[in-house]
């Protein structure tokens, strides 16, 4: 896999804006969870309901603390840059910081930001955008093995599950690598591709490029996107499934939701996701199978979490775990049983 030009200077100052909830700051939260040592603090505007746990700073304080780049660590529907955030971006550029963003809008397309960057000689990094062109997907089975995280909804832990699975497999002696498909994963890993910014016809081809042919014993753990059942994002999810042609997949689930995020569509069951993923995934890998269930149990106490995981595991005959709370060892055991030990 070709590494992105990650000349993004560290350490980071994370900008959270005034997002309404923690999920809207998942980029910043993900960076802190996996790369806290790269961060000096966070900037929050009045009314911000998210908190990464880093020290609150003004932009000038962040610059004085040694920050090199302000990362826009918040997301919203459509990946827009709210008008009232522009002043903060300009302030960061005037303070001598570069600015990096995972939003759909390009920073340099905002005249005030473009002017401030040029005046101060600072860099603008649009992680979600790339200058590459991709072929259409071919669906030809390629060497190597792959695991894809899939979801009952958006923002249920697909990235965290993939990162935790990659870590657990490497610790077990497998040769494994994490394939980032979203902006936060790219910030964390230093390589990858924001798949939802690829033109629709080329999503499967981009996923093939992202998880190329490798040695037969090399595992690529691919970060999932969206959900096959989400009316807004199922197209990206399906293209990723076809292009990554996983040998195994892990279903990610948040048990307290009744509707999918941002829409009125009811949440699908784990059974439905397993069945649909196999049905659709067989197009490019007839041997696709589910190897585990990853549940975000943050809203449950320990007894409730363990009871739910036991129930799901028994129902599906699969290891069920919370990757952050209980680790991924049981899922690695399942992979070993299905595909062999390293």
From TrEMBL:
Q: Which superkingdom?
A: Bacteria
Q: Which InterPro entries does the record associate with it?
A: DgcN-like, DgcN-like_C, DgcN-like_N, P-loop_NTPase
**Protein's UniProt name:** Uncharacterized protein
D-glutamate N-acetyltransferase-like N-terminal domain sequence ranges: 47-129
Q: Which Pfam families match?
A: DUF1611, DUF1611_N
Q: Which residues form the D-glutamate N-acetyltransferase-like C-terminal domain?
A: 134-332
Question: What NCBIfam families does the record tag this protein with?
Answer: DgcN
């Amino acid at each position: 896999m070709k590494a992105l030009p990650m000349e993004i200077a560290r350490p980071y100052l994370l900008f959270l804006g005034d997002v309404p909830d923690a999920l809207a700051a998942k980029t910043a939260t993900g960076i802190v969870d996996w790369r806290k040592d790269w961060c000096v603090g966070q900037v929050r505007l009045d009314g911000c309901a998210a908190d990464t746990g880093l020290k609150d700073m003004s932009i000038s304080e962040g610059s004085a603390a040694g920050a090199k780049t302000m990362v826009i660590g918040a997301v919203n529907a459509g990946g827009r840059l709210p008008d009232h955030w522009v002043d903060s971006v300009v302030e960061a550029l005037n303070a001598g910081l570069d600015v990096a963003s995972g939003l759909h809008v390009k920073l340099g397309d905002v005249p005030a930001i473009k002017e401030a960057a040029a005046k101060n000689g600072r860099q603008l990094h649009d992680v979600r955008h790339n200058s590459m062109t991709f072929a259409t997907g071919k669906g030809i089975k390629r060497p190597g093995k792959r695991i894809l995280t899939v979801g009952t909804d958006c923002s249920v832990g697909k990235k965290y599950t993939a990162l935790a699975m990659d870590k657990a497999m490497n610790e077990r002696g497998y040769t494994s690598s994490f394939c980032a498909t979203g902006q936060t994963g790219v910030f964390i890993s230093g390589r990858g591709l924001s798949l939802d910014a690829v033109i629709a016809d080329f999503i499967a081809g981009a996923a093939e490029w992202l998880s190329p042919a490798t040695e037969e014993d090399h595992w690529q753990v691919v970060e999932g996107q969206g959900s096959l059942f989400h009316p807004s994002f199922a197209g990206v999810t399906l293209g990723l499934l076809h292009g990554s042609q996983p040998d195994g997949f892990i279903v990610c689930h948040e048990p307290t939701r009744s509707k999918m995020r941002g829409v009125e569509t009811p949440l699908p069951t784990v059974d439905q996701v397993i069945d649909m993923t196999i049905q659709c995934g067989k197009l490019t890998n007839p041997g696709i199978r589910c190897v585990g269930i990853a549940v975000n149990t943050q809203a449950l106490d320990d007894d409730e979490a363990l009871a739910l995981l036991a129930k799901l595991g028994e129902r599906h005959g699969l290891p069920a775990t919370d990757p952050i709370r209980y680790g991924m060892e049981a899922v690695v055991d399942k992979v070993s049983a299905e595909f062999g030990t390293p």
